Amino acid sequence: MEEAGTISAPPAPSPAEAARGGGVLHVALIGNPNTGKSTLFNALTGMRQRVGNYSGVTVERVEGRYRDGDALVTLIDLPGTYSLSASSPDEEIALAVLTGHAPGIDKPDVVVVVADAANLERNLFLASQVLELGLPTVIALNQVDAAEAAGIRIDAVELTLELGAPVVPTVAMRGEGLDVLKSAIRKAPALPRPARQFALPAEAVAAMRPVEQRLTEAGFNPSAAGMEALRLLAVREVGRHLQGVPGLEPAVTAARAQVEAAGLSPISLEAESRYGWIADVVDRTVHRAGTGAKTITDRVDAVVLHRIGGPLIFVALMAIVFQSIFAWAEPLIGAVEGIFGALGGAVASAIPEGDLQSLIVDGVIGGVGSVLVFLPQIAILFLFIGILEDTGYMARAAFIMDRFMRSVGLHGRSFIPLLSGYACAVPGIMATRTIESRKDRVATIMVLPLMSCSARIPIYTLLIGTFIPPIAVGGVWNLQGITLLAMYLLGTVTALVVASIFKRTLLKGQARPMIMELPPYRLPRPRSLALSVGHRASMFLKKAGTVILALSIVLWALATYPKTEPAAGLSDQQAQEAQLANSTLGRMGHAVEPLVRPLGYDWKIGVGILSSFAAREVFVSTMGTIYGVGSDADEGSSTLREKLRNERHGSSGAIVYTPLVAVGLMVFYVYAMMCMSTIAVVVRETGGGWAGVRWAAFQFGWMLALAYGSALLVYQGGRALGWG
Q: Engineered SS bond to 133: which of 49, 77, 224, 593, CB 3.0-4.6 Å?
């Protein structure tokens, strides 16, 4: 057996490290899922955060900063991962950042590994891998309060000696231990670096030496080269960050053959060696009271994870969420409407009547305001999702839904991305990077846009609030809330059915069992919730402030030009309609009207559908522009809803928007793939290049066909039944 590693002196700083110092410390935060890593990140950085993507990929990159004396500390929150095996895209990114191979990101000066004190043995696997990279490392032993409540006491001093790195107990939810953690981060670069702490069979050590040599020649320090060589024995292919290392793949193949010839398993060698050492460390540092008493988490799980009661509780919670989107948001919506109405009126009175007034009032204020009015509902949805995540119920929801996921051939991990799709399909698609199987990942991506995202809320709310009466059902619910829930359920059920078809045809493959940690229940931290909701709402506002604003101005111009001289004897309303019908926008609408007429739509709805190919929520601002909502103070109809109710077909005088048309239009938007951002992410997440384009085109095509066919079935079928 090889001797276990010893602690070595820190290497001298490289010229690059010395040059970039300047009082700035670069710190990477890494940890298993459900360890409170993001909570700790928020506690350290507060509102001083920025969000983007890693270069070349769509994995979200979250950075923050804080002051520590005179020094500025920049903190990057790496994706949650159980190991550095690089078997999923999230793990690839984490490993690339820590080894200095992530484009555009400096190699961190310090790494903070967030470990769950109540599940130390499993968390130490990742920690031991990070320690062997040779970077200054601090272990944040988080959630020590939950561990103590479970009768677990950890000797942090002894654990520090065992690991060769400072261990700092923290409770991120309450901000405890943060000052000590900041001090440890500041001092970490000056501490000695621990090498490998466990022994390997001599045969494995000899087999790995050529691999380590290739990595060392490529710029890895000896400790990191040893960690990478051991990791590469178990993985199927060399990660992207190592593909340029000369002679590496043949060396790895030869090393695997040597290990197998020695009677060892290259796949399980790392796990067996690390967990053997971890078990000894835990025995010496962790003391358990052994009371055997059930915790609060155990008692709650006995109810919420019940075979029958669990799914019923889950459905009831979802019903409450969708009901609240209408009930709680109504006063806030009224306030936002009042603000934009007053703003439009003030601008209209300050600017002389003409194109400039129309541009600002109808195009800018009317267009953007008609979408921002739904921000309260979107914030409430994000708030509920944040509460489910912070309390620990989200993981239980995935566990409850695992049986259903497997019944359609999907991996249990697909549920979290699908649920994230309720907020936005883009981060939901990015979340599929935790799914190891490519076929499972692509199948999830293909159906994820069917989950009704927040961009659909403005459309649902406009149509439901206008055409679905608030009739009480069962004395608790009302028909509007039930209709909204039905739209969400329609998309979800269809996603599962389509996924089942894909997994039995194009993406046939066996679903793997799901292994997921269920974190203890916790009360949400208001500050973290506020940061989460604020971040997600700000992304919506930025979208409204850029894409929707630009499109609102373009739509106003298309609806205003070319100018049409009003015929004699026409009222202002008739003149406005004549101008719109003969404008560029009107001509576009008339061109597509034959295609949408079988669905019960007129040319104005056709224009709304065309415009929403850029982003679904633009449909509402388009309707606001078409119907001149920005200047409705001078007209009989003061709201967009009133104008929709009063809209008539010019030839027959029949009502355009019936409840049947409204339901069909909502069904169309449940299924239609109308989001350029999502299409771009699908291209990149399914392989990029022509392969990604083909997957995105296929997805757009089948979703549009499903949307058109379903809306046609609703409208024509409803009319045949006498509901039209």
A: 224
Residue 107 tokens read as: 């190699």
- What six digits make up the tokens of 449? 């846009």
Cα distances (Å, whole numbers) of residue 70 to 32, 49, 66, 184, 350: 31, 19, 11, 16, 50
User: Given this model, what pLDDT does residue 697 score?
Assistant: 93
Q: What is the DSSP string of 648-700?
A: B-TTT--BS--HHHHHHHHHHHHH---BHHHHHHHHHHTTSHHHHHHHHHHHH
Q: Tell me the residue range of the domain where 50 lies.
A: 7-194
The pLDDT assigned to 25 comes to 93
pLDDT score for 638 = 47
For residue 204, pLDDT beyond 70: yes
Pick from 354-368, 522-536, 583-597 the range whose average pLDDT is largest: 583-597
Of 78, 147, 109, 103, give the one whose Cα is nearest residue 16: 109
Answer whether residue 678 is part of any domain. no
Q: Are 670 and 487 in contact (CB under 8 A)?
A: yes
- Termini Cα distance of the chain: 81
Residue 32 is assigned to a structural domain of this protein: yes
The set of residues, in sequence order, having a beta carbon less than 8 Å from that of 309 and lying 6+ positions away, is: 303
Rg of the chain over all Cα atoms, to the nearest angstrom? 29
Let me know: does 447 contact 495? Beta carbons within 8 Å.
Answer: yes
Short-list 337, 427, 325, CA closest to 378: 325
| 524, 386 Cβ separation under 8 angstroms | yes
β partners of residue 288? 152
Nearest C-alpha neighbor of 718 from the set 672, 675, 665, 677: 665
Question: Which of 491, 480, 477 minimizes the C-alpha distance to 320?
Answer: 477
pLDDT, tens digit (0-9, with 9 covering 90-100), for 282-292: 999 999 876 55
Q: How far is CA 466 from CA 177, 198, 461, 668, in A?
A: 53, 68, 8, 17
**Residue 719 tokens, joined:** 């009319």
| pLDDT tens sequence across 485-519 | 899 999 988 998 998 899 888 887 665 555 566 77
Number of domains in the chain: 1
> What is the average pLDDT across 293-308?
82
Residue 73 in any domain: the answer is: yes
Cβ burial, residue 295 (10 Å; 0-12/13-18/19+): middle
- pLDDT at residue 511, rounded to an integer: 56
**CB of 367 within 8 A of CB of 624?**
yes
Percent of the chain residues topping a pLDDT of 90: 24
- At 558-598, the pLDDT tens digits run 878 888 777 777 766 667 767 777 888 888 888 999 999 99
CATH classification of the domain holding 86: 3.40.50.300
383, two tokens:
């708030």
For 82-151, the DSSP string reads S-S---SHHHHHHHHHHTT-STT-PPPSEEEEEEEGGGHHHHHHHHHHHHTTTS-EEEEEE-HHHHHHTT
Q: What is the pLDDT of residue 724?
A: 64
Q: Which of 313-317, 497-501, 662-666 has the highest mean pLDDT?
A: 662-666
Q: Which residues contact 328 (CB under 8 A, 6 or more apart)?
A: 376, 380
For 269-284, what is the mean pLDDT? 90
SS3 content of the chain, % helix, strand, coil (to 5): 60, 10, 30
The answer to whether position 61 is within a domain reads yes
CA dist 78 and 98 (Å) reads 10
pTM tops 0.70, yes or no: no
Map tokens 């190699």 to a residue. Answer: 107
pLDDT value of residue 100: 84
Mean pLDDT, the chain, rounded, equals: 81
CB burial of residue 19 (10 Å; 0-12, 13-18, 19+)? exposed
